[in-house]
Design a protein that fits this description.
The chain is built from 7 helices and 12 strands. By secondary structure, the protein is of the alpha+beta class. The strands form 3 sheets. A 5-stranded antiparallel sheet has the order 5-6-7-8-12, with no helix packed on it. A 4-stranded antiparallel sheet has the order 1-2-3-4, with no helix packed on it. Strands 9-10-11 form a 3-stranded antiparallel sheet, with no helix packed on it. Helix 1 packs parallel to helix 4. The longest helix has 25 residues. The two termini are about 70 Å apart.
């Protein structure tokens, strides 16, 4: 809601002087002046468009002056003041209609950008967007015939551990075995329970007792302690057992 600004003395004094002037003039001189101002406002051409606010203010303050001059011209009796009241009713009704007509384009103008965006802001989700994690399950295999390496060659396992095609030796690894889809990780069981993960790109070994591999996502293994538990990515584990 917009508050109307109160006029200052620089605006109030000329307006009061205009009212007093029209109140002192005969009504048949003051009324044509107001009608001329209204006609100029309706045309809104040339300088009138730049001084529309001043012209509208002259109508608002000039009409009371003409209404004061009207009963004085007819003797100032009760009938004259009744005619002045009827003139006031008609005059202010016409003035309100003129103001509404002049403001018709302003009412049709679109809402400010902030107001227009408010429904969209109100319907926007709160907080960060939710990402759905879809794990690719590991393709477990036994080591009876060797495990195919996505990067070429095969992984061979014995009782002491497994050797990959690139020469890496994973001590204590036992079947079942699995590679990540891109071949960047090697996973196997541990003889004493849990899982061993070999990060082939960073050459880091993770021995995780009590954990099970649930799947792969974003190039990382996701693990849980039991079936039905929410899986977590390896970097999110509280204290992974790393070996360089």
């Amino acid at each position: 809601m917009t508050r109307r600004r109160l006029p200052g003395w620089s605006e109030l004094l000329p307006a009061v002087a205009w009212t007093v002037l029209l109140a002192g003039l005969p009504w048949w001189l003051g009324l044509p002046c107001l009608l001329a101002v209204a006609a100029v406002l309706l045309l809104r051409q040339g300088p009138a468009a730049r001084h529309a606010a001043l012209l509208r203010r002259s109508l608002r303050w000039g009409l009371p002056g003409v209404l004061i001059a009207l009963p004085r011209a007819f003797g100032g009796d009760l009938l004259a003041w009744g005619a002045a009241l009827l003139g006031a009713l008609a005059g202010f009704t016409l003035l309100a209609g003129l103001e509404a007509w002049l403001d018709r384009d302003r009412r049709r103008a679109p809402e400010p950008a902030a107001s227009a965006e408010w429904p969209a802001l109100a319907m926007a989700p709160i907080g960060p967007a939710t990402t759905i994690i879809e794990l690719q399950p590991p393709q477990w295999q036994s080591a009876a015939e060797g495990l195919h390496d996505p990067r070429g060659g095969r992984a061979e396992c014995r009782a002491e551990g497994c050797r990959l095609a690139d020469g890496a030796w994973i001590e204590g690894a036992v079947p079942p075995l699995a590679f990540s889809p891109e071949g960047g990780w090697f996973a196997a069981g541990l003889s004493d329970g849990g899982i061993v993960l070999w990060d082939r790109d960073r050459h880091r070994l993770h021995r995780l007792g009590g954990w099970m591999l649930c799947g792969w996502h974003g190039g990382q293994p996701w693990l849980a302690r039991s079936e039905g538990e929410m899986p977590v990515a390896l970097p999110s584990l509280p204290d992974p057992d790393d070996e360089g």
